[in-house]
Write a structure and sequence with these properties.
single chain; twelve-stranded mixed sheet; 5 helices; 21% helix; 47% strand
Length: 262
């Protein structure tokens, strides 16, 4: 939660002919499940490639997403290593515990407006329901609930490219959490991915999102997670730039050891 809120999944987006690379700087904070903290995020988008950098008091992380190649690269600067995840395999494995046909999502205009970082954003009420099972098919059922308010600025610089990237990722069924964390909590990963897909469908940039994630279910594990309470997150975009980006940002450094994962 601290490292990345990252940044995914549905519908057609109309994209204008003029496109540019995008750099988005944002601040994310979260609390719940005994955790709290603030993270500075920088997201670079170039076509169907994205680089996410997250910096907090406890850790730094760099992740590269290559949608066309179906690869996610998680860099470890300290060890000079990179975990290369096969996203097609990961998505298939996660679908066993989170059936895509059971996901429900709605983002509804609430009629409110707000100025954030100099941009006028419209308010949208967000509700996402993700049924899941613990332990795969036949396991204990549970439901992930994600809800809150997102403030979306339309027609602003970078919005078309942001939407195009997430639309492309949605078509591949991508998730944007750390794969190891996603394997442990696939419902939450799917819910966050669904949220970004809906943002892309609207065609704007979510300049601020205030979200709550909680678990419901009758089984003992779901009951225990519900008792521990949910997770609350806030992400605010601080600035957006559309200057050209170097291709090297989206490549694994040559001196890193590559470790294939799936």
């Amino acid at each position: 939660m601290h490292r990345r809120l990252p940044l995914a999944v549905l519908a057609l987006v109309v994209i204008g002919p003029a496109q540019a690379d995008v750099t988005i700087k944002a601040t994310a904070s979260g609390k719940g499940l005994g955790m709290s903290g603030e993270t500075q995020n920088v997201t670079y988008i170039k076509g169907l490639k994205m680089r996410s950098e997250a910096t907090s008091k406890k850790s730094n992380s760099v992740t590269i997403f290559d949608v066309d190649a179906q690869k996610m690269y998680v860099l470890n600067d300290r060890k000079k290593e990179v975990d290369a995840w096969d996203m097609a395999a990961l998505t298939q494995e996660m679908s066993k515990s989170v059936p895509t046909e059971g996901v429900q999502a709605s983002i509804t205009p609430n009629g409110q407006t707000k100025t954030i970082s100099g941009q006028t954003a419209d308010g949208y009420d967000v509700k996402i329901v993700v049924p899941a099972t613990i332990g795969g098919p036949g396991g204990m059922p549970m439901t992930m609930l994600l809800g809150g308010v997102s403030w979306i600025a339309k027609g602003v610089p970078g919005a078309a490219d942001y939407a195009a990237f997430y639309k492309g990722a949605a078509e591949k069924g991508w998730i944007f959490s750390d794969p190891r964390a996603a394997q442990g909590a696939p419902g939450q990963a799917k819910a966050m991915a669904q949220m970004y897909a809906e943002f892309a469908a609207i065609g704007g940039l979510p300049y601020e999102a205030n979200m709550d994630i909680k678990v419901e279910g009758d089984g003992p594990i779901a009951a225990m997670m519900a008792k521990m309470g949910g997770v609350s997150t806030t992400t605010t975009i601080d600035s957006v730039e559309t200057a050209p980006l170097d291709d090297a940002l989206f490549q694994v450094p040559a001196d890193y050891t590559l470790k294939e994962r799936k």
